[in-house]
Design a protein that fits this description.
Length: 232
């Protein structure tokens, strides 16, 4: 059986429109597409294992508070490794900063042409972010070590990035557990995952890696952002 290279899971309540969108994207971006109603469904749905996966979340008719709650939900955390993106957004909602910090990789708005959606999805499959240059620069300028770690190293979850930050402060496993309201076994599990992802074997090496990564978090110059993949 030939391996599928790209798959898109469309999440939203409007099953008919999302089925039509799935048919369009299958043709325009050469990806297998499916749809489901909720993020929980998407996180459990193993309908298609692909080399590169994308979760496209329909925000039509959602209020700002509902979108913010959704991007910070357990369901979102379960799909952060599958390139989550939001579409049918109102630009004036200003949810991008929080959403990026929660692992969202792209944003598509109600007045975007359908060609922009296809172009953005291709960029996401190439491990780029689909966000305006202005919003990206503003986000990178924000002095938040954990979210910047997550931004520059998307293989890390936001929780893992926060744990590295606490590790760099010299906190013990117990102190980290207290800060994050998790158990010590969960801390150890996160550390094992972090070590594997950043290719280190102990706490000292992880701290050295974090300090090296932090030194690269200065505001990027125009030449450091590959603007060909970002909408204006």
């Amino acid at each position: 059986m030939q391996q599928v290279l790209r798959s898109i899971q469309i999440v939203g309540a409007n099953s008919l429109l999302n089925a039509l969108l799935a048919a369009f994207l299958k043709e325009s971006v050469a990806a297998e597409c499916g749809s489901c109603a909720t993020l929980e469904d998407a996180s459990h749905n193993k309908w298609l294992e692909a080399e590169k996966q994308l979760v496209l979340i329909d925000c039509f008719a959602m209020r700002r508070d509902d979108i913010l709650s959704m991007v910070e939900s357990a369901g979102m955390r379960k799909v952060t490794g599958r390139r989550p993106a939001l579409f049918n957004l109102h630009a004036e909602m200003a949810i991008e900063h929080t959403a990026i910090g929660s692992g969202v990789r792209g944003f598509f708005y109600l007045d975007d042409p359908v060609t922009s959606l296809a172009k953005g999805i291709i960029a996401l499959f190439e491990d780029e972010y689909w966000i305006s240059r202005k919003q990206l620069v503003n986000f990178l300028a924000t002095p938040n070590h954990a979210v910047n770690l997550a931004m520059h190293h998307p293989e890390l979850t936001l929780r893992e990035s926060k744990l590295i930050e606490l590790l760099s402060q010299g906190l013990s496993n117990q102190a980290i557990a207290d800060q994050l309201f998790i158990s010590i076994p969960t801390v150890k599990s996160h550390l094992s995952s972090i070590y594997r992802k950043i290719k280190v074997s102990n706490r000292l090496q992880a701290v050295c890696w974090a300090e090296s990564a932090a030194s690269r978090f200065s505001l990027p110059s125009a030449g450091m952002i590959d603007t060909k993949h970002f909408p204006t």
